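[READ THE FOLD]
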Amino acid sequence: MKPSMFNIAQLYNDNILLYNTYSTSLVEIEPAIYNRIFIDGNYSDHKDEIDALFELGFLVENDCDELSEQELLRKTVIENNSDKIANIIIAPTMECNAHCYYCFEKGFRKGIMTRETADCLIQYLFEHWNHDELGITWFGGEPLIATEIIDYIVDGLIKRGINFSSKITTNGSLLTESVIEKIKSKWNVEKIQITVDSIGEDYNKIKNYSDLENPFEIVMQNIELALLNDLQIKVRINFDPEKKQTVVNTFNYLKDRFKTYDNLSIYFAPIDEDSSIVKNINQNFTEMNEHPYISLIKFGRENKLFRGFPDVENDINKNTSPRIALLKKLKIFPSPTNCYATCPSVYSIDSNGNIYKCHRTLGRKEFASGDIFNGIKKNSEYEFFCNTDLAYDECKECAVLPICQGGCKINGRIFSGKEACAPCKMIINNLILLYKQDLDALYERR
């Protein structure tokens, strides 16, 4: 018998609070018993406790290869993935009217999809969709620059009898009344995500639009128009970890301005970069009293906001276990795969018809795995994503592995630090403490 490599222990009320990132078990244990079992390896005493700890996953058999078990999970996702498309990201254009300093598409914005390419895309989807429902995310660039092509593609899907629903990721600047009419009557849009990184002039500087006067107010008015039309709007606040107050101010402004609407949700996400401009979230912030991400999570919880998820009670009212709902909200629930891009039938397609495994590589031809004219190509780029490899060698010794399954492969490739790691890694102990608080509150209500 031996301790699981996925145990995370910390002091709590003079005891040891022990969490296992694979089994999701959580226990309090006396320090003397913890030391005897987990430090000294004494499994002859406290038989009842040892049996219980084994059942909860904190102890495993000596011959248990936990790394291989996690690899088998990742392999199962790949092998069981259908060869038919259920979800796809389409960029009808790579052009954008904003110029955000953190954009991962800088230098790769070019062109609007032609009708000839759109015809091939429609045919490709007709041949490869799952014949149930096709989920489309309209992406870019700024997809609303290319509304005519979206119209054309939608018409083609309808003519081919392809049942679909869609989502849109947009900056919101072009979300006009005429576009909203298309969204409601034709595009089968379930949700619109709009990025609002700050307020007022600070927002205008970050977005740096090409040809808009007072763009912040335009976007705010467009959001209200969409809300008035009963569209589901999700606002994403991209944040620089060293500028927490910007997130707080932005959230408070949005909450106050749109307080009468219940079809608006807000979440925040760290900017995925590491440079002299933005410090990556997976670093130490020793100059601060508290890691900025955990600080923002606490702020979000106080305001019934957390990463765009509904309140705990909403999940409890469904068939989801309350405990699992709590874990998922805190992003410490295990996953069988690191990313959707691992699945062989999940793609992103750019305006030229090139196929990519990851939307973060859109427009970079060197990352393409074929195109819609000739089909998917199982080249080195395809194999880079569709495998069980971990981003770093250190992942093999990391207790967070069941949660991230090796992290974001593309971040691990294009950045030099630990950008592939899940944001929860640096604050995992804090998140476990929040989970403990949530559990205690849940059981008190019962």
About this structure: The radius of gyration is 24 Å.
